Amino acid sequence: MLAHALAPLLYVQRDEWFPLQRVVAVLHPTRPVIAYHLLWQDDVNGSWIPFTVPTDEEVVWVGYDSTRAPTDLWTYWHGTLLHADWRERGQVAIDVQWGKHGSLPHGLIESDLPSIKKLNDFYAFTWLSLPDMWLGNLTRRGPWCFCHGYARYRDFSRELPLSGRLDLVVRADDAREALGAVFGRPYSRKTPWPTAPVPGR
Predict the structure, then answer these.
(1) Are 93 and 54 within 8 A, CB to CB?
(2) ω before 143 within 30° of 0 (cis)?
(3) Is the pLDDT reported for residue 201 higher than 50?
(4) Of 37, 61, 68, 82, which one is least surrounded by beta carbons within 10 A?
């Protein structure tokens, strides 16, 4: 019940090509934090490279207090953990980047993103990586380009609630076996838990 109640609402970029396939919620056994592992059908880049994992795993974490209200949100943004204070903000919400599925706390100020990991940098890369996308279409059907402007790249308007989409809820510190069983093997193993402290119960 707790995992469903705190499951985020995703705001997916409106032109997103690849569907969300599976979702696993992992409750930490001793810390008040839940990891939501998201398995997307594929990533827009690198699909043609031999032995590439043919899916894209992302993860977000929701911290909560003794009343089971959300207090903290962490998202995985291309190797960097982003954090947002979520006290008194209600429904946890995530913006999902086109094609690569990097996760942003909804309403994040773009200038707060790490250097060389700004959203407009990734938008520019969609044009620089066109040959990579074209090669990807040799191995699976995908987009040929992001054929729109930057304003559209930032249009996170397609709502996708996770609450009714949880394929598995598990309580574990190490959930690799459960994730492998649901996601298949191999899968991309992301950081299991945020390192920043979470509030006590």
Answers:
(1) no
(2) no
(3) no
(4) 68
Q: Find how far residue 6's CA is from the centre of its chain.
A: 15
Express as a percent the part of the chain with pLDDT over 90: 81
Residue 195 or residue 16, greater confidence: 16
Find all residues with CB under 8 Å of 135, minimum gap 6, and list them: 47, 48
In a domain, 6, yes or no: yes
201 within some domain:
no
DSSP state of 8: P
Phi and psi, residue 178, nearest 5°: -65, -40
Is 198 part of any domain? Answer: no
Q: Is residue 189 part of a domain?
A: no
Identify which of 73, 126, 84 has the alpha carbon closest to the alpha carbon of residue 109.
84
* Number of domains within the chain: 1
**What is the spatial distance between Cα 113 and Cα 99, in angstroms, rounded to a whole number?**
18
Residue 133 has a pLDDT of: 93
Residue 19 is inside which H or E element, if any?
Answer: none
Give the DSSP per-residue string, 86-155: -TT--S-EEEE-TTT--EEETT--GGGSPTT--HHHHHHHHHHTHHHHHHHTTTS---S---S-HHHHT-
Q: 3-class SS at 178? A: helix
Domain that holds residue 125: 2-182
Structure tokens at 169: 């809820």
